From TrEMBL:
GO terms for cellular component: mitochondrion. NCBIfam families: apbA_panE (TIGR00745). It comes from Aspergillus sclerotiicarbonarius (strain CBS 121057 / IBT 28362). Keywords: NADP, Oxidoreductase. InterPro entries: 6-PGluconate_DH-like_C_sf (IPR008927), 6PGD_dom2 (IPR013328), ApbA (IPR003710), Ketopantoate_reductase (IPR050838), KPA_reductase (IPR013752), KPR_N (IPR013332), NAD(P)-bd_dom_sf (IPR036291). This is 2-dehydropantoate 2-reductase.
Length: 407
C-alpha cells in the first residue's frame, strides 16, 4: 500500500504549487466522521488527521474518552489514538496536538482545570485546511463551513458525505458567494452499516458496504468539473488516492457524472423510506406488505422518476430512463426496506429528537428541481410538509413540557 507521503508526492507532482502537507481535517464526528477517521488511522502509515470539535463541551467528552475513537465490530472495540484536535471557542479555533514538539503524548489537563480556561490558554489555529471531510447533516453544513471559511482556499478540497442533494448550491450562495474563492468539492456515498452508540466517539460497524467518491457535479456548476483527473487540484487527487487506498472504507473513485447517478439513486430511496417512516412513525420494514403505504410509495416514485429523467445535467447519458424508471426505483426501495426492516430511519430519529431533518434536501430537492422543469410534484410536496409539521409539533411539545424535579 502506498504511504500517505507517497500520495502527497504523487498529487503535488507537476502542479507548480507548494507541496501538500497531507493533513486531513474532519468536521462532524458522528457515525460517518468517526468511521472515516478511524479507518484513516487504521492504515499502516496513517496521514496526519485533525478532528474539528465545534465546542469545548465536546472537547471535554473527548478527554473523558482518553483521546480515542472506538469502532465496535462483532462485539469487540477497535480503539485508535493519535488524532490532533481543533476546538472552536468564541469563533476561534484552538489547537490541541496529540504529540508535543518532542514527540511525546500531550498530557490531558488536570481534572480540576476548567475546559474553557484550557482552551483559552492553548494556541490559536488559523492554518489553511487542504483536505476537509464534512460529515455533518445537510441542514447544518453551511453553518458548519462558515466557521472554517477563512481557512479554506481555492486550492482546498471539501468532501461532503451526507444524505440529500443541493447542499453545494446552498454553500456557494451562503458561504462562498465569490466563485474565485470557492474550494474544490467532492461527494461521498457510504453504504456501510453504521449504528450510533450511547457514548460519543464510538460507532458500531454493523455491515460492510462501500464508499463511492468523486468530484462534485451540481446543477449550477456542470462546466466547473473536469472528468479528467489530470485537471483536478492536487488536494483533490491526494484525498481521492488516500481514501481509495484505505482498506476499511472499501472506497472506489467515480467520475462526476457516474457519482451523481449514484447520488440520485440514494436520494430516491431516502425520499421514500426516510420520509414515510418519519411521517408514519414506523420501522422501515413496516412499509412493506401494506397496500396503502405501497400506493403512496408508487406515487412518490412516479414524480421522482419524472424529475430525474428530465434533469438537464443528465441529458445525453445513455440508459437514464431505464435506470430511473419507477419500476426499478420501486425494486430498489423494496430491497433496502427489507434489508433494514427493523431499523428506524435517521429522519424518524431526528423527528423524535426534535432535530431539523434532511427533508429539504430529499423531497424538497425533487420539488425544487421539478418546479424548474415544469414538473408538478404534489405528492413529494405534501410529504415534505407532513414531515416539517411533525418536526415542528415535536419541538413545540418539548418547549411546552413542564420540568419536574424528582427528590
Amino acid at each position: 500500500m502506498a504511504t500517505w507521503m507517497q500520495n502527497v508526492e504523487e498529487a503535488s507532482k507537476g502542479s507548480g504549487k507548494r507541496r501538500l502537507s497531507g493533513r486531513i481535517h474532519i468536521l462532524g464526528v458522528g457515525n460517518v466522521g468517526t468511521f472515516v477517521a478511524h479507518s484513516l488511522m487504521s492504515r499502516p502509515s496513517p496521514p496526519p488527521v485533525t478532528l474539528l470539535l465545534h465546542n469545548p463541551d465536546l472537547y471535554s467528552s473527548w478527554l473523558a474518552k482518553k483521546k480515542c475513537l472506538a469502532l465496535n465490530s462483532n462485539g469487540l472495540d477497535d480503539i485508535k489514538t493519535g488524532f490532533d484536535v481543533n476546538v472552536l471557542n468564541d469563533k476561534t479555533w484552538y489547537s490541541f496536538p496529540y504529540w508535543d514538539k518532542d514527540g511525546e503524548v500531550c498530557q490531558p489537563m488536570a481534572e480540576t482545570e476548567d475546559v474553557d480556561e484550557s482552551v483559552g490558554e492553548s494556541v490559536e489555529d488559523d492554518d489553511h485546511i487542504e483536505c476537509l471531510v464534512v460529515s455533518v447533516k445537510a441542514p447544518v453544513t453551511a453553518m458548519a463551513l462558515e466557521s472554517v471559511r477563512h481557512r479554506l482556499t481555492p486550492d482546498s478540497t471539501v468532501l461532503l458525505i451526507q444524505n440529500g442533494m443541493g447542499v453545494i448550491d446552498e454553500i456557494n450562495e451562503k458561504v462562498f458567494p465569490d466563485p474565485r474563492k470557492r474550494p474544490n468539492y467532492m461527494h461521498g456515498i457510504i453504504s456501510h452499516g453504521l449504528a450510533r452508540r450511547k457514548e460519543p466517539f464510538q460507532v458500531a460497524h454493523t455491515g460492510i458496504g462501500t464508499t463511492i467518491l468523486g468530484p462534485a457535479l451540481t446543477a449550477k456548476s456542470t462546466s466547473a468539473v473536469s472528468e479528467n483527473e489530470d485537471d483536478w487540484a492536487p488536494s483533490t487527487k491526494y484525498l481521492m488516492r488516500t481514501l481509495t487506498l484505505t482498506p476499511p472504507l472499501v472506497a472506489v473513485a467515480e467520475n462526476p457524472s457516474s457519482l451523481m447517478l449514484y447520488q440520485l439513486e440514494k436520494l430516491a430511496m431516502n425520499a421514500v423510506i426516510n420520509t414515510l417512516t418519519a411521517a408514519m412513525n414506523c420501522e422501515n420494514g413496516e412499509l412493506l406488505y401494506n397496500y396503502s403505504y405501497t400506493r403512496v410509495m408508487r406515487l412518490l416514485l412516479l414524480e421522482i422518476s419524472s424529475v430525474i429523467c428530465a434533469l438537464p445535467e443528465l441529458q445525453g447519458i445513455p440508459g437514464i430512463e431505464s435506470r430511473f424508471s419507477p419500476e426499478r426505483l420501486r425494486w430498489m426501495v423494496t430491497q433496502l426496506a427489507n434489508k433494514t426492516a427493523k431499523n428506524h430511519s435517521s429522519m424518524l430519529q431526528d423527528v423524535r429528537a426534535g432535530k431539523t431533518t434532511e427533508i429539504e434536501y430529499l423531497n424538497g430537492y425533487i420539488v425544487r428541481r421539478g418546479e424548474e422543469l415544469g414538473v408538478k410534484c404534489v405528492v413529494n410536496y405534501m410529504m415534505k410538509h407532513l414531515v416539517l409539521a411533525k418536526q415542528q409539533t415535536s419541538k413545540q411539545r418539548d418547549a411546552s413540557a413542564i420540568p419536574i424535579d424528582i427528590l
